[in-house]
Amino acid sequence: MEFKDYYGILGVEPDADDKAIKSAYRKLARQYHPDVSSDDDAERKFKEVSEAYHALKDPEKRAEYDRLRQYRQSGGGFEPPPGWQGFRPGAGGGEARFEDDGAFSDFFESIFGGGFGRRAGPRPGRDLEVEMPLFLEDTVADTRKQIRVGDRTLNVTIPAGTGDNERIRLKGQGTPGADGGEPGDLYLRVRLVPHPLFDVDGHDLIVTVPVAPWEAALGGKVSVPTLGGRISVTVPANSQNGRRLRLRGKGLSGKKGAGDLYAVLKVVMPDRNDERSQALWRQLAEHSGFDPRADWE
Amino acid sequence: MNNSVRRLTLTELSRRVALPVATVTEIVELGIIEPEARDPHWLFDETVTVIVTRAARLHRDLAMDWSGVALALELIEDNQRLRRENAALRRRLARLLE
Fold first, then answer.
1. CA gap A250, A207 in Å, rounded
2. What was the ipTM of the complex prediction?
3. Which residues form the J domain (chain A) (predicted)?
């Protein structure tokens, strides 16, 4: 078993007073609280900090821990001393256990024991929420997906038109209840995965369409990708860079009907011009009286 | 799997989230959650349990009072929304500039 350096975890000296311990814990708890932090490792760090604080805030537990710390051999491993009874709270006493957000480490359990006071009677399980990445393509029709939550694999049907940030509820798939209590529910929070071609704005989609300068000038038909395959779009003559062409109903499906797809024109220059092209551009420049910076005069 | 959404009374909600009725009442009065119906008594969409549980964790773990929790949840929600929006705008900008 690994010996836990609770003082180190909280970043305090072993002779720190209660106030310093509390203040160190508060600061780290704010930093790593899984509801606040975007750190991938936040949950583990928070549990560690929380365990350290639970061991050190109680004078009795802290005294037990300090005794073990003295006993501890140099090196990382740790075995409780022979005949060690461990700390047990008095009958009926003890704090309500730090809920059931995953138990503390074996190290903690071996010193302080498990059986903290619990309320009598059935207790319902907790509702959980996890994020579920979803591809845009999977929103077009009802889609069956397998998701892993902890050590379980669940089959879920994602209804067509499910949007970003929406929640899907799976009844009874949260944490189990205790003493005959009902299990909690599991909520999947949908996160649409960024797409290589399409951007999402509500139920509308945006696709950037590169066009040659002469396509912008003369107009013409351009083939544009949609979630349902390519379609032909008319670019009006004399289109500005950034012009948005609306393709009604080609966006994401939703409960109130489908959104639109906006094709945004992006005028792109050829990588290189040969002499003939240069000459043609020059001819155009001489002919055109256009001054794009007229407003600066 | 049943995805139908049921409504909970204040007492049912309190039991589901293992908090006293008075605490849940305070959470509602601070606007952390909103009842779906108020008349003749409060009814809640079942999905609020996740919000209440998160509020209770912040209250307990960070020793915040409930109005602090209400503010924190609002700011967290805003912050997440802005992060997502910022990431989306950056992607769109990159398409125009690349």
1. 11
2. 0.76
3. 5-69
Could you tell me the pLDDT band of residue B4, with boundaries at 50, 70 and 90?
low
The CATH fold of domain A198-273: HSP40/DNAj peptide-binding domain (2.60.260)
Residue type for A296, please?
W
Q: What is the pTM of this model?
A: 0.72
Task: Determine whether the interchain pair B63/A169 forms a contact, defined as Cβ–Cβ distance below 8 Å.
Answer: no
pLDDT band at A95, cuts 50/70/90?
very low
A61 CA: distance to closest CA in chain B (Å): 19
Check if A130 contacts B (Cβ < 8 Å). Answer: no
Which residue intervals of B1-98 are DSSP H helices? 10-17, 21-29, 48-61, 66-97
Residue A102 structure tokens: 């995953």
Report the DSSP beta bridge partners of residue A107. none
Distance from CA of A29 to the nearest CA of B (A): 6
Q: Is A35 helix (H, G, I), strand (E, B) or coil?
A: coil
A187 burial level (CB within 10 Å; 0-12, 13-18, 19+): buried
Smallest CA–CA distance from A99 into chain B, residue: B57
How confident is the model over A16-36, as pLDDT tens digits? 999 999 999 999 999 999 888
Given an 8 Å threshold on Cβ–Cβ distance, is A50 in contact with B47? no
Share of chain A above pLDDT 70, in %: 87
CATH superfamily of A6-112: DnaJ domain (1.10.287.110)
How many domains does one find in chain B? 1
Q: Within its chain, how far is the Cα of A279 from the centroid?
A: 54
- Mutation pick from A21, A25, A31, A35 vs chain B, by most beta carbons of B within 10 Å, is A35
Which pair of tokens denotes residue A288? 């055109």
Confirm whether B1 is domain-assigned. Answer: no
Which amino acid type is present at position A92?
G
